Amino acid sequence: MHFAAIDWFIVVVYLISSVAVGLLGKKYIGKVSDYLVAGRELGTYAGIATLAATEIGTITFMYNGELGYKYGFAAFAAALISGLVMIVVGRTGLVIERFRALRLMTVPEYFERKYSRGLRLLAGILVATGGILNMGVFLKIEGEFLTIVSGIDSRYLVAVMTAILLLELVYTVVGGMMAVVITDFIQYVLLSVATILVSIYAVYHAGWDNIVAKISSTMGSSGFDPIQNPKFGITFLIWQVLLWFSIHTCWQTTAMRVFSTKSPEISKRVMTWTGFIYLGRGMLPMLWGAAALTLFGVGAIDNGVPLPVVNGQTLAPIDAMPAMLASMLGPGVKGVVVAGMLAATMSVNSSYLLGWSAVISQDIILPIREQMGKPALSSRSQILVNRLANLFVGLFLMFWGLYYTPPGAVYLYLNITGTIYLAGTFICVIGGLYWKRANTLGGYLAMLMGAAGAIIPFFFLHWSENITGFCAFGLAAFGLVLGSLMGKRAPTSLAGAT
Amino acid sequence: MNYWLIFWTASLVIAAVSFAVITGIVMVKGYKDLRSMFNRLAEQRTHDHE
To answer: CB-based contact (8 Å) between B39 and chain A?
Structure first.
């Protein structure tokens, strides 16, 4: 069933109002800290909305739906870990409390405070590369979702992607974090309503008992037991714990919300409550994927699960969930759900555009200028550099998104591209904050060995994601310890203020 | 398998209820939060201009 006039109306109204409201953010931009971290004035509830909206996108629904389709309830383990680790980070204040007290604007900025400008530059390059590669697959997959659900001809996929990106760019470039925070609030409300609606529809249409029976007959006990499931197992679960600790503390877009809060105490509260949202962020779309398997999983067996067949056409597992939405949602409801998914898409993309462009401008361009002996830029000029970096990232994403198709499950591709910089960054941050011996040589070795440990095993040796992840984090830790014990003691002491 | 099913069912219920309840609270209090944030920023800007 394709889009009705009422659905188009809802979507168009949402798009116009979202961009218009986003543009209002411009009037609050004075300093570069207003543009990047909302003047550090974010309260608890607006903080929860912007953090949740930033990390819940159509891409999140798609890859979690794919996991639910392919691995059944066993996939819930990944969602459970992501939520519980976030609650632990919030309750303990691990890294985030000190980060906020240091009044940072980007994660690599910490590297100059603790280690050296050179290491900040290296961290900036790795953070921007890993982050942009990570984001590179978003547009294509989001475009796929929208074309399937709305019934737009797939030939217009590129045009749909371009339109989405341009709309996000308009308000992100102009209003920075102020615009992102305002739009995130509206988008969070809309995407949450859509999430709840789809969950009710999915269980109603597929039937809970049928979902359980389908997973049981297709996957046996490995559809329920993550330890027994060959794709997961103990190594995967331990890697996920490590990975999520690093994401919740050092992922640039998440960290920017921590930096934007009014105080370290509020940053902890935001993180704790968003942890509960993270449980649903993973499990609910996984449930949709399992429901899509129940309704459409009747095709040829591929990697142990039947491929989805919709109207006689065989699809990829990742497309089963949007196909299910297209077939089960009626006029009006479909418009609300697609507007919700568009909201999710735009909140993630605008935040990611701002996050990675902030790193390019603050941690690559500005340190290089200073190294060349050029005078420091004014706040106004820094905002201009940020805006240009934003445009550059947007254009790059357009072309990369068209060219590249990730191998295997999208969730795992995202994990690995994130690990390129997260392994070294997390180890350097933990070492820098909690180990007095950590020094610049150790920092360099950790960053380089962590990146090599992610890139070489995954892209060249084709090792599994779990082993690649352990390799990256293990090598980064080894590099930090080795370099720190070999090199001079670091004299730096970091004092922070709120 | 039964234990896992019970565990995942309970986890799913907790996740869904938390998601819905927190969304409701954030919808109401988040709006107030944003308003006071922009009021403070506007005051700061006025103060800076003076």
So the answer is: no
Query: Which SS3 state, helix, strand or coil, does residue A297 take?
Result: strand
CB contact under 8 A, A212 and B5: yes
Give residue for tokens 């930096």: A259
Tokens 């998914």 map to which residue? A341
pLDDT tens sequence across A401-452: 767 776 666 777 788 888 889 999 999 999 999 999 999 999 999 999 999 9
Q: Is the Cβ pair A182, B20 closer than 8 Å?
A: no
Query: How many other CB atoms sit within 10 Å of the CB of residue A407?
Result: 12
* CB < 8 Å from B in window 335-364 of A: none
CATH topology of domain A5-405: Sodium/glucose cotransporter (1.20.1730)
Measured in degrees and rounded to the nearest 5, phi and psi for residue A102 equal -80, -5
Give the DSSP H/E element, type plus range, for residue A181: helix A157-206
CB nearest to A224's CB, from B4, B18, B19: B4
- At B17 the three-state DSSP class reads helix
Tokens (6 digits) for B14: 């907790």
pLDDT greater than 90 at residue A33 = no
Q: CB burial class (10 A; 0-12, 13-18, 19+) of residue A300?
A: exposed
A451/A423 Cα distance (integer angstroms): 7
For chain A, which residues make up each domain, given as ranges? 5-405
Model confidence at A1: pLDDT above 70 = no
Cα A222 to Cα A220: distance, rounded to the nearest angstrom: 5
Question: Sheet holding A305-310: strands in order across?
Answer: A297-302, A305-310, A313-314
Higher pLDDT, A139 or A209: A209
d(CA B26, CA A234) in angstroms, rounded, equals 36
Contact B30, B22 (CB under 8 A): no
By Cβ distance, the residue of B1, B23, B41 closest to A28 is B41
**Contact yes or no for A46 and B30 at CB 8 A:** yes
Which of the 8 DSSP states describes residue A308?
Answer: E
Answer whether B33 sits within 8 Å of A44, measured CB to CB.
yes
* Rounded Cα–Cα distance for residues A304 and A229 (Å): 11
A45–B29 C-beta distance less than 8 A: yes
Cross-chain Cβ contact A276/B20 below 8 Å: no
Tokens of A370: 């200073």
| Partner A contacted by B50 (CB < 8 A) | no
Give me the amino acid identity at A286. M
Task: Supply the angle between the helices A138-150 and A320-328 in degrees, to the nearest 10.
Answer: 30
Q: Rounded CA gap, B22 and A125, in Å?
A: 37
Asked if residues A322 and A148 have their Cβ atoms less than 8 Å apart, the reply is: yes
Q: Is residue A263 within 8 Å of A498, Cβ to Cβ? A: yes
Q: Torsions phi, psi of A298, nearest 5?
A: -130, 5
In a mutagenesis test of the B interface, which of A45, A56, A84 is the best target, namely the one with the most B β-carbons within 10 Å?
Answer: A45
Put simply, whether B13 touches A (Cβ < 8 Å) is: no
Each domain of chain B, given as residue ranges in start order, spans 18-50
Backbone angles phi, psi at A42, to 5 degrees: -75, 130
